Automatic annotation (TrEMBL):
<dbReference type="InterPro" id="IPR000740">
    <property type="entry name" value="GrpE"/>
</dbReference>
<protein>
    <recommendedName>
        <fullName>GrpE protein homolog</fullName>
    </recommendedName>
</protein>
<dbReference type="GO" id="GO:0001405">
    <property type="term" value="C:PAM complex, Tim23 associated import motor"/>
</dbReference>
<dbReference type="Pfam" id="PF01025">
    <property type="entry name" value="GrpE"/>
</dbReference>
<keyword id="KW-0809">Transit peptide</keyword>
<dbReference type="GO" id="GO:0051087">
    <property type="term" value="F:protein-folding chaperone binding"/>
</dbReference>
<dbReference type="GO" id="GO:0030150">
    <property type="term" value="P:protein import into mitochondrial matrix"/>
</dbReference>
<dbReference type="GO" id="GO:0000774">
    <property type="term" value="F:adenyl-nucleotide exchange factor activity"/>
</dbReference>
<keyword id="KW-0496">Mitochondrion</keyword>
<feature type="coiled-coil region">
    <location>
        <begin position="53"/>
        <end position="98"/>
    </location>
</feature>
<dbReference type="GO" id="GO:0051082">
    <property type="term" value="F:unfolded protein binding"/>
</dbReference>
<dbReference type="InterPro" id="IPR013805">
    <property type="entry name" value="GrpE_CC"/>
</dbReference>
<dbReference type="InterPro" id="IPR009012">
    <property type="entry name" value="GrpE_head"/>
</dbReference>
<dbReference type="GO" id="GO:0042803">
    <property type="term" value="F:protein homodimerization activity"/>
</dbReference>
<keyword id="KW-0143">Chaperone</keyword>
<comment type="similarity">
    <text>Belongs to the GrpE family.</text>
</comment>
<dbReference type="GO" id="GO:0006457">
    <property type="term" value="P:protein folding"/>
</dbReference>
Amino acid sequence: MALVKARGLFRVSQLVTDTITLNARSITLGSLRHTAAEQTNPNTDAQPPPQIDSKFKEEVDKLNKEVTSLNEKNTELLDKYKRSLADGENLRNRLTKQISDAKIFGIQGFCKDLLDVADVLSKATESVPKEEITDQNPHLKSLYEGLMMTEAQLQNVFKRHGLEPVDPLNEKFDPNFHEALFQQEVEGKSPGSVVVVSKIGYKLHDRVIRPALVGVSK
């Protein structure tokens, strides 16, 4: 029994040895043929099979298309990014101007209401007979002085907040600042000159909030 097993192992060993020998001979023969081919045609490069060459070209074409597509998308995104930056800058400038205008002109409505108070004070001081403002009439004198002080203080407040009067007497008529109520011929005045100011106007930081009501020469 042991002899049979030994013979079997010996045969297997021989088969393995023969197989290794045949493989070695095949490899050697292949190497010799390859070397001979290289010696016969030393400048001839090995060419890949047609199937591999075709697949390689397909992959290259596919990659080129992907690169082109990515470049187009990159250009489009870059353009959108630049437009977004420009829009953001324009929006920031608009908001900055709106905030600045709100700070400057936020009191415009309040100023318009105070102009009526200024008009009343001005009319009150103008209506007081100047010849009666004497020490013999102390009550009227005190009242007049109080009105003048109040009017002066109100004008100082206006000036401090950028509200300035527009009194265009003897100036050239400007429709941006004046409103003509009538025209009349006045000797010695050129046409278009302001000859009468019925009510002075006001401007808030160069923005007219009430035009001056005037009469113009013709």
